[in-house]
Design goal:
Elements: E1 2-6, H1 21-37, E2 42-45, H2 57-70, E3 76-80, H3 87-90, H4 94-98, E4 102-105, E5 116-120, E6 127-133, H5 141-148, H6 158-170, E7 178-184, E8 186-187, E9 206-207, E10 218-222, E11 228-230, E12 236-238, E13 255-260, E14 268-273, E15 280-285, H7 287-293, E16 301-307, H8 315-322, E17 326-332, H9 337-345, H10 353-365, H11 371-384
Parallel strand pairs: 1-2, 2-3, 3-4, 6-7, 7-10, 8-9, 10-12, 15-16, 16-17
Antiparallel strand pairs: 1-13, 5-6, 11-12, 13-14
Helix pairs in contact: 1-2, 5-6, 10-11
Amino acid sequence: MRFLHTADWHVGKPLRGRSRMDEYAAALDEVGRIAVEMKVDAVLVAGDIFDSPAPPPEAEKLVYDFLARLLPEGIAAVLIAGNHDHPKKLGALASLLEGLRIHVRPEVRPPARGGVVAVPSRDGAEEARVAVLPFVPERKVVDACAVMDPEHTWFETYSERLEQILGALVGGLDASTVNLAIGHLLVAGSLFGTGERRLHLGDIYGLNPQQLPSSLQYIGLGHLHRPQDVPAPSKTVYSGSLIELDFGEKEQEKRVVVVEASPGKAASVESVALSAGRRLRDVSGSFEELRGMAKGLGDAFLRVRLKTVVPVPGLADQVKELLPNALDVSVDHPRDAAEIQREREDPRTRLEPGELFVKYYERKNGASPSPELRKLFRALYEEAQL
């Protein structure tokens, strides 16, 4: 049997306020074309289908159009929720889609109630069993354990609990079927850029590679956007994101992973490069140097560092006129020792962003901001860092 593994679509995510819906459409069209041309039996999507718990309608349409494209080709799909997806919203159509061989699993389920998905080959000669582990927030891991088996004795740490859940999901699989798993989780030691939410990348969330099951032919992961293999007991791979979502992912080669396996045999794995999506580039130089580069930058989105002898008002706007795809422009100019010392001595440089906001609000309004307003600022600041 043959499978296409992909993850971290983040459909609907803008970049510095620019819509990228045309890029997501092109990328999903490319993935659909690869699935059809390579005659896969199923597409496995390992979470973060959407970028927001409440995606815009055009984002939902792109995803459902992609799934509809699989139906006449006899290609099944298995999708799990990531940390960006809203489990209830993602699962709203699960019952309807199930009859179309589109298996949506927004939350952890026991094996007999959908935690393991049976996927027959298109010719009916073989069958795959796909164990599914959607993203489990740390605050919800106890609930997930209770769903799996309320009478079981569970370990205390998050990673140990996930290890047990995975063990329970794959424990009943045998060599008569193709056995795989998909999960949206962090494996400790993996590489990541700045496109992922760091909140879910701390050690508390990371499984040791040796905690992953050893009995599977393939484990397809989502959560990290950098394509990479994981040195685990079973063949384990992060497919990576569809397009470069953030400047922390610039110059990464995006891909999907095509897996071929038969019961009881080792899987063969092939990376298939994706060409859709605009590249992200850092460029640096004087205004004249940037002018000379302009024609060779194509349609890439740019993060620009402008070098100048003295700061001049309006320079950033001039750069954006010269380079319309410049999304972020910083001005770099030499500073004398006295200026650097003044900055170091400014007490505001030692304040956290939340404290700076309070100082600004008090100076502007003559009173301290309410706890609710401080909480809103913290939420907005965290969102702006993504």
